[in-house]
From TrEMBL:
<dbReference type="Pfam" id="PF00111">
    <property type="entry name" value="Fer2"/>
</dbReference>
<keyword id="KW-0560">Oxidoreductase</keyword>
<keyword id="KW-0001">2Fe-2S</keyword>
<dbReference type="Pfam" id="PF01799">
    <property type="entry name" value="Fer2_2"/>
</dbReference>
<dbReference type="InterPro" id="IPR002888">
    <property type="entry name" value="2Fe-2S-bd"/>
</dbReference>
<keyword id="KW-0411">Iron-sulfur</keyword>
<dbReference type="InterPro" id="IPR051452">
    <property type="entry name" value="Diverse_Oxidoreductases"/>
</dbReference>
<protein>
    <submittedName>
        <fullName>(2Fe-2S)-binding protein</fullName>
    </submittedName>
</protein>
<dbReference type="InterPro" id="IPR036010">
    <property type="entry name" value="2Fe-2S_ferredoxin-like_sf"/>
</dbReference>
<feature type="domain" description="2Fe-2S ferredoxin-type">
    <location>
        <begin position="2"/>
        <end position="78"/>
    </location>
</feature>
<dbReference type="InterPro" id="IPR012675">
    <property type="entry name" value="Beta-grasp_dom_sf"/>
</dbReference>
<dbReference type="InterPro" id="IPR001041">
    <property type="entry name" value="2Fe-2S_ferredoxin-type"/>
</dbReference>
<keyword id="KW-0408">Iron</keyword>
<keyword id="KW-0479">Metal-binding</keyword>
<dbReference type="InterPro" id="IPR036884">
    <property type="entry name" value="2Fe-2S-bd_dom_sf"/>
</dbReference>
Protein backbone atom coordinates (compact mmCIF):
# COMPACT_ATOMS: atom_id res chain seq x y z
CA UNK A 1 0.00 0.00 0.00
CA UNK A 2 1.11 3.54 -0.69
CA UNK A 3 0.07 6.65 1.21
CA UNK A 4 -1.31 9.51 -0.88
CA UNK A 5 -2.43 13.04 -0.12
CA UNK A 6 -4.86 14.35 -2.65
CA UNK A 7 -7.34 17.19 -2.83
CA UNK A 8 -10.63 16.24 -4.43
CA UNK A 9 -13.33 18.83 -5.03
CA UNK A 10 -11.66 21.14 -2.56
CA UNK A 11 -11.30 18.62 0.28
CA UNK A 12 -7.99 17.09 1.31
CA UNK A 13 -7.74 13.30 1.73
CA UNK A 14 -4.93 11.14 3.07
CA UNK A 15 -5.33 7.49 2.16
CA UNK A 16 -3.55 4.21 1.70
CA UNK A 17 -4.00 2.81 -1.80
CA UNK A 18 -2.67 -0.12 -3.74
CA UNK A 19 -0.09 1.12 -6.26
CA UNK A 20 -2.21 -0.37 -9.06
CA UNK A 21 -5.45 1.39 -8.03
CA UNK A 22 -6.86 3.52 -10.83
CA UNK A 23 -7.88 7.06 -10.00
CA UNK A 24 -11.45 6.38 -11.14
CA UNK A 25 -11.72 3.45 -8.73
CA UNK A 26 -10.25 5.52 -5.89
CA UNK A 27 -12.75 8.31 -6.55
CA UNK A 28 -15.75 6.01 -6.75
CA UNK A 29 -14.95 3.33 -4.22
CA UNK A 30 -12.88 5.12 -1.58
CA UNK A 31 -14.42 8.59 -1.76
CA UNK A 32 -17.92 7.70 -2.99
CA UNK A 33 -17.59 10.13 -5.93
CA UNK A 34 -19.87 8.07 -8.13
CA UNK A 35 -20.65 11.04 -10.37
CA UNK A 36 -17.48 10.02 -12.20
CA UNK A 37 -18.47 6.97 -14.19
CA UNK A 38 -16.85 4.13 -16.10
CA UNK A 39 -18.10 3.57 -19.63
CA UNK A 40 -15.51 1.25 -21.12
CA UNK A 41 -12.46 -0.82 -20.34
CA UNK A 42 -10.38 0.45 -23.24
CA UNK A 43 -9.74 4.10 -22.25
CA UNK A 44 -11.68 5.41 -25.22
CA UNK A 45 -15.09 6.61 -24.00
CA UNK A 46 -14.12 9.57 -21.80
CA UNK A 47 -17.00 9.03 -19.35
CA UNK A 48 -14.48 9.02 -16.50
CA UNK A 49 -12.96 12.42 -17.34
CA UNK A 50 -11.95 14.60 -14.39
CA UNK A 51 -9.56 17.51 -14.01
CA UNK A 52 -6.10 16.93 -12.55
CA UNK A 53 -4.61 20.29 -11.61
CA UNK A 54 -7.14 21.92 -13.91
CA UNK A 55 -6.51 19.82 -17.03
CA UNK A 56 -8.80 17.04 -18.18
CA UNK A 57 -7.61 13.46 -17.83
CA UNK A 58 -9.33 10.12 -18.25
CA UNK A 59 -9.30 8.91 -14.68
CA UNK A 60 -9.29 5.27 -15.79
CA UNK A 61 -5.95 6.01 -17.36
CA UNK A 62 -4.31 7.53 -14.28
CA UNK A 63 -3.17 5.74 -11.17
CA UNK A 64 -4.36 7.08 -7.84
CA UNK A 65 -0.72 7.39 -6.77
CA UNK A 66 -0.14 9.75 -9.68
CA UNK A 67 -2.64 12.14 -8.09
CA UNK A 68 -0.55 12.25 -4.91
CA UNK A 69 0.08 15.90 -4.07
CA UNK A 70 -2.29 17.09 -6.74
CA UNK A 71 -5.77 18.53 -7.05
CA UNK A 72 -8.62 16.62 -8.66
CA UNK A 73 -11.94 18.15 -9.62
CA UNK A 74 -14.86 15.91 -10.49
CA UNK A 75 -18.30 16.71 -11.82
CA UNK A 76 -19.40 16.81 -8.17
CA UNK A 77 -17.08 19.73 -7.44
CA UNK A 78 -18.27 22.08 -10.18
CA UNK A 79 -21.35 23.62 -8.59
CA UNK A 80 -20.54 26.46 -6.23
CA UNK A 81 -22.84 27.56 -3.42
CA UNK A 82 -25.71 25.55 -4.89
CA UNK A 83 -25.28 27.15 -8.33
CA UNK A 84 -24.54 24.90 -11.27
CA UNK A 85 -21.41 25.64 -13.26
CA UNK A 86 -22.22 27.55 -16.48
CA UNK A 87 -21.31 24.48 -18.52
CA UNK A 88 -23.78 22.38 -16.50
CA UNK A 89 -26.44 25.04 -17.08
CA UNK A 90 -25.70 25.09 -20.80
CA UNK A 91 -26.05 21.30 -21.06
CA UNK A 92 -29.37 21.61 -19.25
CA UNK A 93 -30.59 24.51 -21.39
CA UNK A 94 -29.62 22.84 -24.67
CA UNK A 95 -30.90 19.41 -23.68
CA UNK A 96 -27.42 18.10 -24.40
CA UNK A 97 -28.07 14.63 -23.01
CA UNK A 98 -30.38 11.69 -23.21
CA UNK A 99 -29.34 8.84 -20.92
CA UNK A 100 -26.78 11.12 -19.27
CA UNK A 101 -24.10 8.48 -18.89
CA UNK A 102 -21.49 10.38 -20.90
CA UNK A 103 -22.47 13.74 -19.42
CA UNK A 104 -20.10 14.04 -16.43
CA UNK A 105 -17.06 13.34 -18.59
CA UNK A 106 -18.41 15.40 -21.47
CA UNK A 107 -18.88 18.44 -19.22
CA UNK A 108 -15.42 18.11 -17.69
CA UNK A 109 -13.87 17.84 -21.16
CA UNK A 110 -15.98 20.72 -22.52
CA UNK A 111 -14.70 22.98 -19.73
CA UNK A 112 -11.15 22.00 -20.64
CA UNK A 113 -11.86 22.85 -24.27
CA UNK A 114 -12.98 26.37 -23.30
CA UNK A 115 -10.06 26.80 -20.92
CA UNK A 116 -7.77 26.15 -23.86
CA UNK A 117 -9.74 28.30 -26.27
CA UNK A 118 -12.57 30.47 -24.92
CA UNK A 119 -13.99 31.12 -28.40
CA UNK A 120 -13.74 27.86 -30.35
CA UNK A 121 -15.28 27.21 -33.75
CA UNK A 122 -17.78 24.38 -34.09
CA UNK A 123 -15.02 22.30 -35.65
CA UNK A 124 -12.66 23.03 -32.77
CA UNK A 125 -15.35 21.99 -30.27
CA UNK A 126 -15.92 18.71 -32.11
CA UNK A 127 -12.18 18.02 -32.23
CA UNK A 128 -11.87 18.92 -28.54
CA UNK A 129 -14.57 16.44 -27.62
CA UNK A 130 -13.43 13.63 -29.90
CA UNK A 131 -12.11 11.59 -26.97
CA UNK A 132 -15.58 11.51 -25.40
CA UNK A 133 -18.18 9.19 -26.84
CA UNK A 134 -21.93 9.71 -26.65
CA UNK A 135 -24.05 6.79 -27.70
CA UNK A 136 -27.35 8.70 -27.63
CA UNK A 137 -27.41 12.28 -28.80
CA UNK A 138 -25.59 12.50 -32.11
CA UNK A 139 -23.52 15.29 -30.48
CA UNK A 140 -25.44 18.26 -32.00
CA UNK A 141 -26.90 19.55 -28.77
CA UNK A 142 -23.66 18.90 -26.94
CA UNK A 143 -21.84 21.15 -29.40
CA UNK A 144 -24.62 23.74 -29.04
CA UNK A 145 -24.21 23.64 -25.27
CA UNK A 146 -20.49 24.27 -25.49
CA UNK A 147 -21.18 27.17 -27.87
CA UNK A 148 -23.72 28.58 -25.41
CA UNK A 149 -21.28 28.21 -22.53
CA UNK A 150 -18.56 29.89 -24.58
CA UNK A 151 -20.95 32.77 -25.23
CA UNK A 152 -21.54 33.12 -21.50
CA UNK A 153 -17.80 33.28 -20.82
CA UNK A 154 -17.76 29.93 -18.98
CA UNK A 155 -14.38 28.58 -18.07
CA UNK A 156 -13.16 26.48 -15.16
CA UNK A 157 -15.02 26.19 -11.90
CA UNK A 158 -14.45 28.99 -9.41
CA UNK A 159 -12.27 26.72 -7.29
CA UNK A 160 -9.90 25.93 -10.13
CA UNK A 161 -10.10 29.48 -11.45
CA UNK A 162 -9.16 30.87 -8.07
CA UNK A 163 -5.97 28.86 -8.13
CA UNK A 164 -4.85 29.58 -11.64
S1 LIG B 1 -14.03 4.66 -18.60
FE1 LIG B 1 -12.29 5.91 -18.90
S2 LIG B 1 -12.23 6.20 -21.04
FE2 LIG B 1 -13.95 4.88 -20.75
S1 LIG C 1 -26.44 10.91 -23.39
FE1 LIG C 1 -26.37 8.73 -23.41
S2 LIG C 1 -24.28 8.33 -23.86
FE2 LIG C 1 -24.43 10.47 -24.08
Amino acid sequence: MTRINVTVDGVGYEDEVEPRTLLVHYLRESLGKTGTVIGCDTSNCGACTVHLDGRSVKSCNVLAVQADGHEVTTIEGLAQDGELHPMQKAFHNCHALQCGYCTPGMIMQAIDVLNENPDPSEEQIRVGLEGNLCRCTGYHNIVKAVQEAAGSGATAGAREGAQS
